[in-house]
Amino acid sequence: MPFPAKGDRVVQANYGAGTIVEMDVHHTVIDFDAHGLRRFITNRVQLEPTNEAAPAKRARKARKTASKS
């Protein structure tokens, strides 16, 4: 499989390590460990592969819904 591809762990100079979550001819979306989601122009973004594991995701809390009385 060619690099980079969806699911690959990568490093970008400004944002550090992250995981590619979407990628097409025009845009690449990366979920960075410390900066969240960022979108780049695919043919302009410079990425390096990394073996650094993704941090564990925090569990989301369920939203409380207002009860109707």
Number of strands: 5
**Oligomeric state of shown chains:** single chain
Number of helices: 0
What are the secondary-structure elements, in order, as H or E?
Answer: EEEEE
Largest sheet: 5 strands, antiparallel
Radius of gyration: 16 Å
Q: Report strand order across the widest sheet.
A: 4-3-2-1-5
User: First CA to last CA: what distance?
Assistant: 56 Å
Can you tell me the overall shape?
elongated
- Percent in strands: 35-45%
Helix-strand makeup class = mainly beta
Share in helix: under 10%
Low-confidence stretches: none
Give the rounded overall mean pLDDT.
90
Brief synopsis:
With 69 residues, the protein is mainly beta. It has strands at residues 9-12, 16-23, 27-32, 36-41, 48-49.
What do you see in this structure?
There is one protein chain. With 69 residues, the chain is mostly beta strands. 0% of the residues lie in helices and 38% in strands. A hairpin with a 3-residue loop joins strand 1 and strand 2 (16-23). The termini are far apart. 6% of the residues are buried.
List keywords for this structure.
single chain, 69 residues, mainly beta, 5-stranded antiparallel sheet, 5 strands, 0% helix, elongated
Give the helix/strand layout:
Elements: E1 9-12, E2 16-23, E3 27-32, E4 36-41, E5 48-49
Antiparallel strand pairs: 1-2, 1-5, 2-3, 3-4
